[in-house]
Amino acid sequence: MKKVLAGIAVASVAGGIALDAEAATGTVEADSLRVRTGPSTSHGVIDLVNSGQSLQITGETDDWYQVDYNGQTAYVSKDFVVKTTPQYTVNVSSLRVRTGPSTNHSIIGSLSKGQEIEVLGEALDWYKISYNGQTGYVSKDFITANGQASEPQVSTQGNGIYIVNVDGLRIRKGPGTYHAVIGGTVKGQKLEVVGAENGWYKIKRDGAFGYVSAQYVTKAKTTPTITTETYYVNVNALNVRSGAGTNYSVLGVLKQGQKVAASGEQNGWLQINYNGGVAFITKEFVTKQEPSVSAPPTANSLITYAQSLTGVPYRWGGTTPAGFDCSGFIYHVYQKFNFSIGRTSTTGYWGSLTKTTNPQPGDLIYFQNTYKSGPSHMGIYLGNGSFIHASDNGVAVANVSTSYWKQHFLGYTKPY
Question: Which residues are in the NlpC/P60 domain (predicted)?
Fold first, then answer.
């Protein structure tokens, strides 16, 4: 059979036509699926949808479907949604194609029974199609959608209060355009939805029941109920990051004993709300039991301990008093004082910790282009230009004002 090329729309208004791009339909296959503001788990959660719920798919981004959810653009994971695309077929022996959406418009041709079409849009009870290179209209009453004579697949989102989103909306006696019109409503009006059938909502109004097309109403927004768990920070300083990993930027720091509410978890990282946005902290340094918080160590105590290691020999990759390399020395000292600082290289610390132009004793000092290009050496700043580091000759104190260190100086960071 000849296929008439076109796409679908999802809005119409009384006395006029509003046409949008076609959207496929997706059915949720998870007990509970989070609807997010963007195409990743680091984006905020808008709402939760349940198994069997229908969603209007408007696009795709990697492993995510873009959907129209309550009138706004949102995203859901493809892993938990089955996508279907509506197919439309003529179900009468001969269907007239007209120049406009009414029987008052002239006839420009006809379609045969069984012929498939793709719909460009809708105008009340008519489908807009492409016919022999021009725009045409056919009555919805004589089109079968996905094997049954019904309205196009649209998103249905359960019972509740919905708001009319077109200028004028007909209320019918049954779920289809072939049912009699028993009333009407206007844009912005609230409707009580008590059921759904074939792309139509059953509504209760003034003690009576009627049906409206699900395409032209939007569910009233509600605040999603998201389960959270309470944790307490059990290290002196815990980095808050923009994503679930140490490769993401640091947004801030949480102090020991601070209470946080986690709304999700991925790969050992907890999702939290930080300054009104989505952020992440590692689960390794929090506890569900409120800790007994002692006073954090002073910079003096940290420096005193670092200086006590003077003379410890240099050892490549070393992180114990048996021997240190420059970054291993940093890792050992700050871990001892409960800083959330991982074992990485000088380049890793320089790229992940918070930079400062006003260094204080206990901050970190960096040098570049020593034995290799880029950040290549580091130590603990003691104040007045002095620093302690694991040099080739072992742990020792040096001063940035000397010609060699001055020539290779890079900058400072905080230890978080």
Answer: 296-416
